[in-house]
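Changelog-adjacent note: as of this version, every example in the card shows the full chain rather than a window. The one below runs 228 residues end to end.
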Amino acid sequence: MRLIAATLALLCLLLPATAAPKFPALTGRVVDDANVLSAATKADLNTKLAALEQKTSRQLVVVTIPSLGGYEISDYSYQLGRAWGIGQKSLNNGILFIVAPTEHKTRIEVGYGLEPIVTDALSSVIIQSRVLPSFRMGDFNAGVVAGTDALIEQLSLETSVAEKRAAAAAEQRPQGDSGGGGLLGFLIVLFIFFMIARVFGGWGLLPFLLMGGGGSGPGGGWSDGGGW
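Full-length structure tokens:
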């Protein structure tokens, strides 16, 4: 996943885009730009997220957006995380829980500093078991609250306990859910590499494509997302 993430990020920088993604303003810990959450839900979430940040210094922001603007949710959330700068820069301890109701997509985007405790596998389990059941019934309030509560619970644990829980989540992950790895991931990277090589007329970018993921701030990690 790191290689795919780094390659996609590089591709976004190198290839011209028809339009830059449009991001809502960061107005608080809950940004309901899609207008799917009730006032009571937003107030409750704000209280919980403020308490989490005060207790742990970790920042979790919940955001709903009316449209991804043609972008994949992984790309959009990565760029949004970097644009907003969630979390402390020195610790990379920010997380975005993003919901795009129109496209039926949701994702947990994790900063590098929190990757050991909010892994791809744990993110997938939270989304599949806590979030999507409510979303599929049209209840965005319940799904967002359940997903946020699960993340707050994990982020509030002592590090060693949280890491053990994250490791155990790999066993709960649905069979075959590998987060986009394996042969499919290799083919995606290979396809993107040939696109870049064709545009720039050479193979000089190969060393960069073989590097692992890097960077700072939220969006460095590529947690699993889900559709419904």
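Structural remarks: The helical segments are 2-14, 39-56, 73-84, 120-136, 140-156, 159-172, 182-200, 206-209.
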